[in-house]
Amino acid sequence: MSHSANYQVIRAVFVLFLPFLASCATVYTAPDFSDYQARHKTVAILPFDVSINPERRWSVSQQQINQMASEQAASFQRALYTQYLQGQQRGSFTVEFQDISETNTLLTRKAVSGNTQKLLSTMTKSEICDALKVDAVISGEMVLTKPMGTLESIASLHFFKIPGSTNEVHVNTSIHEGGQGKLIWNYDFMQQGSHWASVESLAKHLIRSTARNFPYRK
Q1: Which of 64, 80, 187, 191 would be 23's cystine partner, CB 3.0–4.6 Å?
Q2: Is 17 exposed, middle or buried (0-12, 13-18, 19+ CB in 10 A)?
Q3: For 161-175, what is each residue's pLDDT tens digit?
């Protein structure tokens, strides 16, 4: 094989694995999780708290950033629910997942100002579980350097004018039980250099990366 061909192969392999070179994740599972798993029947997925931290040179208003963050939060919750629901239908989990439309409706009823995230920040996880009538809740924070998805990508190209900029994604996912609001599982994931096409692709990656240690698996 020629030097040129060798170079092309090495370059292809490097490009293929580059997104994974700058990623890291940590996992915590409560020692007594099996005790909770035996009792839990239904889990709700809360809207994630999404932050978009554009680089300084990106010209975009805070209002636009907040709007995109709100849309990303709703999209990620829906994508995550879809992934967990598929696993539930295959019989992969020991729990069922509450329909997010029911979750969001119950939360909206309690949010006087209509701001669900503001409501969630004022309630304990135990109170949230009680309001949703579930045994535990999946919640989390997601920090992005730019939005994702078809419409968001178009907006980013229009506002940011940096189609080739490097993404950074940081997702922290937690499960709290409803009795005392205790943290019983946490997965913290950060990756740089990956160009996520959509929140759906990020949700799929999150589910795949936690497949071996997601605590409600059979």
Answers
A1: 191
A2: exposed
A3: 444 445 678 889 999
